[in-house]
Design a protein that fits this description.
The protein has helices spanning 2-15, 22-29, 36-60, 66-84, 90-112, 127-144, 149-159, 164-188, 196-220, 223-246. By secondary structure, the protein is an all-alpha fold.
């Protein structure tokens, strides 16, 4: 029951900024489960459930266009699959995850305090950058077992790739395709482990939370609100994962 409540809250908060919540699912699951493979597998499945609904609503409300997102996902899908086939030690896995989340949060936080409004205009970048970012983050997301949007969104916000709501939509879609690719990677490497009773309960919890969160986002959150909530969530989870799960300090 406690795990389901936690997953519901995580799904609500993360879906409101275009994420699936995979990083926090991983951190929370370590308190309740002992199987490392089950932890990664459940987190990916719950990620997939949350962002499926979010992605549909972003497209429905005109915040997402497939042609703008294709370069990112075409490069990320094979690399996410490749990353998921690697068998990391648990401590290495959590150290990589924690450091990545903290760095992403710091980049995003710095941007929210920029005072010069001229610097906030959307910039144009060469098309190859989308492929490079998609490939690198896709591999990292497959390696640690999350969708990768939590890495991609802060970078794109920092680069002023587009409006915050469109970046949130891309992050949601990016997580969707990488979660599917990552699950296939776990399956082919014989690392997929899903205890069905726990998985079904948690899937139901994140389904409800995800639908609530995305509707709150589309109606009430401003661009700055999306960025600040994102930065706070990423930083708190990153510190917890690095110190507790990675370095074992507490």
């Amino acid at each position: 029951m406690l795990l389901c409540v936690g997953f519901f809250i995580i799904a609500t908060l993360y879906s409101s900024v275009g994420f699936g919540g995979g990083s926090s699912y991983l951190a929370l699951l370590t308190l309740f489960l002992t199987s490392f493979f089950a932890i990664r597998s459940i987190a990916l499945v719950c990620n997939l459930v949350v962002v499926s609904g979010s992605t549909y609503l972003y497209f429905k409300n005109g915040h997402a266009k497939l042609k703008d997102f294709l370069p990112f996902v075409l490069a990320s899908i094979p690399l996410a699959y490749l990353g998921a086939t690697f068998r990391l030690k648990e401590s290495v896995f959590f150290i990589i995850l924690g450091c990545s989340l903290i760095l992403s949060a710091l980049f995003l936080t710095m941007q929210t305090f920029e005072m010069n409004t001229a610097k906030k205009e959307v910039k144009d970048y060469p098309n190859y950058m989308s492929y490079v970012l998609g490939a690198v983050i896709g591999f990292l997301s497959g390696l640690v077992g999350i969708g990768g949007g939590i890495f991609l969104a802060p970078i794109l916000n920092h680069l002023r790739w587009n409006k915050a709501i469109k970046i949130a939509a891309l992050a949601s879609f990016f997580i969707l395709v990488n979660s599917v690719s990552g699950l296939f990677g776990l399956l082919t490497s014989n690392s997929l482990s899903l205890p069905w009773k726990e998985t079904m309960c948690l899937v139901f919890a994140v389904l409800l939370g995800g639908q609530l969160g995305i509707r709150i986002s589309l109606k009430r959150l401003s661009a700055h609100g999306i960025k600040r909530v994102t930065a706070l969530l990423v930083f708190v989870v990153g510190i917890r994962v690095l110190l507790v799960n990675g370095l074992g300090w507490f």
